[in-house]
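Example record used in the benchmark description.
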Amino acid sequence: MKKLLFLFVILFSTFIVGQFKITGYFDTKIGLTYQFNDRLQTELRVNDNLDIEFNSELSLLCTILSKKNYSLNFGIGISTFPFYSKNLAFFESYFLPFQIEIIPFKETRNLGIVLESAYHFSNSINTSGNRNSIGIRYIFI
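Model output (structure tokens):
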């Protein structure tokens, strides 16, 4: 019982201290970001395009530079097909994202723009390369 109570306190305090962000990307992806502290955040993305296989990505980002109106993040991530078919493997690739988060409006501090460039390393033939994304981010304050 003490272990369960201790685990509950740790998890509850993490949710209080952390911050959630939701992002809609223009390349048909939706991302949910959880910021642990000022330097470390994780993002889970899913593809919301119904015409292709369901793809998910998980990335861990570290803040390199943080200013009042923007921040620069760099990290590592993996891309998977959780409900893979015979044509696709579960693990697709890993990638190195570089992300710029801009908060352009002084009146609205919880609305931002995300620019991301990520290099994918894949085992499939001719699928490694650069991917660029633009999105609109809502920050739960």
